[in-house]
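Sorry to interrupt, but I need a hand with the structure work. I would like you to pick a protein and set down its sequence and fold. Please put the record directly below this note.
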Amino acid sequence: MAQPILHVNAVDFIREGRRILDRVSLAVNPGEHWALIGANGAGKSTLLGLCGALTHPTNGVVEVLGRRLGRVDLRELRGLIGHVNPRHPVRSPLTVRQVVLTGITGTTELMNRWQPTDTEDARANELIELLGMTERADAAWPTLSQGERGRTLIARALQPDPHLLLLDEPSTGLDIAAREHLLDRIDGLRLQHPDLASILVTHHLEELPASTTHAMLLRDGQVVVQGDADAVLTSELVSETMRYPVSITRTDGRWAVRAARDQTSQASPRPATAAATASSSIPTPFRSAATNWRS
């Protein structure tokens, strides 16, 4: 079996006495595309920061391609990871191409006296084309729409050819057309890079690309359930995670959510499935949804 690209084992994250993550574990293999779903404060972005080597766990282990966080040069580790933050601070009027090239140096601005190689410049142009930004390649950052900025930042994250792509709420602030354009491009890059693994954080199932393969539901810093996306993203399990009854459908690979007004807030139990793994924190009626995570 291939080595997991990412291995998170029994991680705790505690700040100022508050337990933000509680014994969270996750393994991401090449070609898998994970969604982290949960309410505000569930710990999604904190977990993504650990996966991206931006923070260290209080307890537990985080490994990227066998390199353990805390025992390896962070510059080496971060070179394996592409992190897309829609709040990326670009303070000068860089062009799209220049922003993408900063992905090589891992800086916000272009470094003084630094020049990309011909190979690096060609890759930047390929990624700009892949994300549908060729016509805007020379446009300055302040003139870009939110959707154009999002696609530019994905190209930037892919510039160093990472093994793992992390997307933190990439659809934030986008209108419907811009969101659909972005998700279509994400599906396309996953198709063209079959070994690339990714993790996407969102509050909204409608913002998940059709190429999503796996999902984890988080509540109060604990894993409710994780595994195959279709086994995890069910009305019962998402209702339990969000503490609100919802009805979920999937059409043409995309998810849709509405309030389950004709259902009670306590969803009925599901039969056991090997496709998902549940946390022991789930109330008794929901533990039948999957194997106990901590067993």
Residues 263-267, 279-295 have pLDDT under 50 and may be disordered.
